[in-house]
Input
Amino acid sequence: MRQVKPAVIIFLILSGISQLWSQQSKRSSRDEYIGLYYTLAVEEMHRTGIPASITLAQGAFESDDGNSFLANKANNHFGIKCKGKWTGETIIYDDDAKNECFRKYNSVLDSYKDHSDFLVSSNRYSFLFELGKKITRPGLKD
Output
């Protein structure tokens, strides 16, 4: 039986660790985030009237393109806290204050739906739905 040299064993172990490290540290890009979730945003736009571009922009920003702790551990892509009538699962995370309570979702779809419902039902954001959908710029004629 052939003996394996210790240097070969060390090399194989380090190669495996290096490969695991690179897989775990791969970050999603903005383009990858949009590619993964644009369909959810469009579905929510048809359901609630919230422009898909707004939903994707906020989701990408709040979740660091899907790389944040809350996105990975709680499927929470919008940083929605437990405030209000939330009765679902929760996760504790340090944000504006230490040990804040955030909503935890079973899927990214659930996060997107809750975000839409949150915006539609909140008095805080109701003025947004009174704005026209047409974009105008000063000095330009229609």
Observations:
- The chain has five helices and two strands.
- The helical segments are 6-24, 30-48, 52-62, 69-74, 108-121.
- Residues 28-78+108-125 form a domain with the Lysozyme fold (CATH 1.10.530.10).
- The mean pLDDT is 83.
